[in-house]
Every structure is written in structure tokens, then in C-alpha cells.
From TrEMBL:
The chain crosses the membrane at residues 45-64, 76-99, 105-123, 135-156, 168-190, 238-262, 274-295, 302-322, 328-350, 362-382, 394-415. One of its GO terms (cellular component) is membrane. It is a multi-pass membrane protein. This is Major facilitator superfamily domain-containing protein. Residues 8-419 form the Major facilitator superfamily (MFS) profile domain. It comes from Collybia nuda. The keyword Transmembrane applies. Keywords: Membrane, Transmembrane, Transmembrane helix, Transport. It is found in: Membrane. Its main location: membrane. One of its GO terms (molecular function) is transmembrane transporter activity.
Length: 441
């Protein structure tokens, strides 16, 4: 299993890191001069450019997951990586905010299938209470790269004037070229599902499949049909996971897109704003790993999600209402430290309480598509006219954490009740159709 960890997680995390970087570097490019050159400060142009990315990103999540096995993991995901890499490189040559918005829409279309596919693949390799640590490691490598993104963007912006290309253009060109190179790597090494993998021996593959079968009974995929898709979509808890994920991604996207802009409006220079955007991601590595390890060890999810959401709320309140800019900056640290861990926590909570690969395919796509809704909200509620405090945006973000806690409470009460009835033998059929299955609280 350690060999599988090393074979699967680093590569998937590296690929998603550049998906995240290519998605959020628009904020750093804005600070580096794109905002002025493309007149993005006029009206809500910047918010529109960031927001419209999420429309195709949401629309193509579920279809992308449903055809993953049909086209093959290597073919489908390599197509996705090369597609968004080419678009990212092309963004370095746009001349108007309209062309920028168009390329953002294309970027969302190509990236849509990638993240839910990654979660789907990872969840099929591990037992239920092994998965959060793996998702956390996968996500942390990605978010760490996201934290490094402003520093990388600052370094690339120093190429300003080279070959008559502006600094913000170099950000897109070089990061897009790196993504295209990773597309080649993904074609060669990206992992498949356990039952179709080619890097394990037949004996090792049988061992992995037996572990999954003993844990939840879905090691072999069931056929995806329209009737099954409709049945899965009728389960209200899948929509609840999506709402919780939306609430957890809203603060993440808000910081990714607006942290350097908010810091600049606090009075720091363009360079300092970019450099100060990276440190808040540091403590989140410790908190996310700690809570994920505890969550897997105790086989419990909801309590740890609750604690981290409260930490996030405290940080948001400080950033919104503190008078001193140093205290507001501390709030960004706390927001990240709390919010980063809720994302893998919610993904693990959802994955643990779903049985059958067809339902898992629908669940991961639906959950992640709601994350795109969080991105739309984040990109529209933080408006340039609300500078320098951005109180409406921060207020909506605080409200999202309250909604997260309410939805978490509803699902936890529901699962607790069903587990009790199952233990008493009061149910007509086993939970999730699997004998002996109990929901993870």
C-alpha cells in the first residue's frame, strides 16, 4: 500500500497543483499589471472574468466522470491536461478583457473533468477510513503549490519587457508551457482504477481488490445506467455534500483570487502584496494533516469538520472587522488554517458514506460541481467598489460557514438515526444495500 501511495498520490497532486495554479493565477496577473492593461478595473470586469470560468466547470463535471471508464483514464485526463495547458499559454497573448473572459471559459471546460476524476480514482484504491489522510496529502501538495503560486508569479513578472512581452503575460505563458509538459507525463504515468491497473502484479491487484471488497463490497464496478444515475441523484445526502463542499470552497477561492488584491488595498506595495500572499498557507499544512490523521484514526468526520469551520469563522471575523491591518492579516492565517482541512474532511465524509462505483462517480462529480458554485459566489461578492475592507464579500463567506455547520448537523443526525435503526434490525434492507454497512459520522 505504501508503494501504491507513492505511485498514485504525488503525480495526481502535481497535476492538480497546476490545475489550481492555472485557475487562480489571474489574481496575481491582475496585481502584476494585467488589471491596468486590459482595463479590468472598469465596472465588474474582473469579477466577470473570474466568475464565468465556473459555468462550464460546473456543467461538465458529471458527464466527465460518467465517461471516464469509457474513454479510459489515461486518454481522458491527458486530453484534459493538454487542453487547459494550451488555453493557459494562450491567455498570455490576449489583448482585451473579452478575449481573457473567453479563455477563462475554455479553461473551465477543460479542467472540469479533472478534479472529480482524481477523487473518484483515489477513493477506489483505499478502504473507507484510510481515505482522508490520502485526500489530505493530495490536497495539501496542491494547496502548497497554490501558496507558492504568488511567489512564482512574482518571479515570472520580473521578466517584464523580455522579448517585448509584459510580466503578467509571462506568468500565463510559462505556467501554461509547464502544464503542457505535464500532459506528456500524465500520458505516460497516470494511474488507472485498481481493476484495470498495469503497475501491480496480479497477486498485488487481487490483494487490493479483496481489501476494498471486504470493506464496502464495491471493488468491481457496477454498470452506469440512466436509471441508476436518477436513483443516485434522488438521494438528498449527495446534494448536502455538495452544499457543504460549496461552503468550504468559497473561502478558499476568495483568498486565491483576492488575497493579493486585499493585501495591496491594505497599503502594501504590489511586490509585498504578492510576497505576503504565500505565508498564510503555511500553518494550514500542519492543521490539515493533524485533523486528517485524527479523523482517520478515530473513524469520525463531523466533529473535526466542525472545529475547523469555527476556526475559519474566527479568522474571517478578524479580517472583516479588526481595525489593525496586522490583525486582519492574522485573520487570513486562521481562515486558511481552518478552511484547508474542511475540504478533505468533507470529501472523505462524502466518500465514506457512498457504496457502489456508479454512485461514487455521481457523488464525486456532484460534490465538486458545487465547489464551482462556491467559486462563482466568491468571484462575485468581492467587488472592487468594496475596497479596502470588502465587508459584503467577507460577510457572505462567514454566512457560508454557518450554512456548512447547519448542513453538517442535518446529515449527522440523519446518519446517526439510520445507524441506530440498523443495529436494532428495524430496517427492511441494509444501509446502502450492503450488509453490515454503517454510516461514518
Amino acid at each position: 500500500m505504501r508503494f501504491i501511495d507513492w505511485r498514485i498520490l504525488p503525480l495526481l497532486a502535481l497535476l492538480y497543483s497546476f490545475a489550481l495554479i492555472d485557475r487562480i493565477n489571474i489574481g496575481a496577473a491582475f496585481t502584476a499589471g494585467m488589471g491596468k492593461d486590459l482595463k479590468l478595473t472598469v465596472s465588474n470586469r474582473y469579477s466577470i472574468a473570474t466568475c464565468l470560468y465556473f459555468v462550464p466547470y460546473i456543467i461538465f463535471q458529471l458527464p466527465g466522470n460518467l465517461v471516464l471508464r469509457k474513454f479510459g483514464v489515461r486518454n481522458w485526463l491527458t486530453f484534459s491536461v493538454v487542453g487547459w495547458g494550451a488555453v493557459q499559454l494562450g491567455m498570455g497573448f490576449v489583448t482585451t478583457w473579452g478575449y481573457l473572459t473567453f479563455t477563462r471559459i475554455l479553461l473551465g471546460a477543460f479542467e472540469a473533468a479533472f478534479f472529480p476524476a482524481m477523487l473518484y480514482i483515489i477513493s477506489t484504491w483505499y478502504k473507507r477510513h484510510e481515505v482522508q489522510k490520502r485526500i489530505a496529502i493530495f490536497y495539501l501538495i496542491s494547496i502548497t503549490m497554490g501558496g507558492v503560486s504568488p511567489l512564482l508569479a512574482h518571479a515570472l513578472s520580473l521578466l517584464d519587457g523580455k522579448c517585448n512581452i509584459k510580466g503578467w503575460q509571462w506568468i500565463f505563458i510559462i505556467e501554461g508551457a509547464i502544464t503542457l509538459f505535464l500532459g506528456v507525463i500524465s500520458w505516460l504515468f497516470i494511474p488507472d482504477f485498481p481493476d484495470k491497473n498495469r503497475f501491480l502484479s496480479p497477486e498485488q491487484t487481487a490483494f487490493v481488490l479483496k481489501r476494498i471488497e471486504d470493506d464496502r463490497g464495491d471493488s468491481i464496478p457496477d454498470k452506469v445506467t440512466m436509471q441508476r444515475i436518477k436513483k443516485h441523484l434522488s438521494d438528498w445526502t449527495l446534494w448536502a455534500y455538495g452544499i457543504m463542499f460549496m461552503c468550504s470552497t468559497l473561502p478558499a477561492y476568495a483568498q486565491a483570487y483576492f488575497i493579493s488584491i486585499i493585501l495591496r488595498d491594505m497599503g502594501w506595495s504590489k511586490t509585498k502584496a504578492l510576497l505576503l500572499s504565500a505565508p498564510p498557507y503555511g500553518p494550514s499544512i500542519i492543521t490539515t494533516l493533524l485533523f486528517s490523521w485524527l479523523s482517520d484514526k478515530t473513524r469520525h468526520r463531523a466533529g473535526f469538520i466542525l472545529l475547523q469551520a469555527i476556526m475559519c469563522i474566527v479568522g474571517l471575523v478578524l479580517t472583516a472587522f479588526a481595525e489593525d491591518n496586522s490583525v486582519r492579516y492574522l485573520g487570513i492565517f486562521l481562515t486558511n488554517a481552518g478552511n484547508s482541512g474542511t475540504i478533505p474532511g468533507i470529501l472523505a465524509y462524502a466518500s465514506n458514506n457512498v457504496v457502489s462505483q456508479s454512485k461514487k462517480s455521481v457523488q464525486t462529480a456532484l460534490t465538486v460541481s458545487f465547489g464551482g458554485v462556491g467559486g462563482i459566489i466568491a468571484s462575485t461578492v468581492f467587488r472592487t467598489q468594496d475596497s479596502p475592507r470588502y465587508l459584503p464579500g467577507l460577510g457572505v463567506t462567514i454566512g457560508s460557514q454557518a450554512l456548512l455547520l447547519l448542513t453538517l448537523g442535518a446529515t449527522n443526525i440523519h446518519f446517526r438515526r439510520l445507524n441506530k435503526l440498523s443495529r436494532e434490525g428495524s430496517l427492511l434492507k441494509p444501509l446502502e444495500g450492503q450488509t453490515g454497512f454503517l454510516y461514518t459520522l
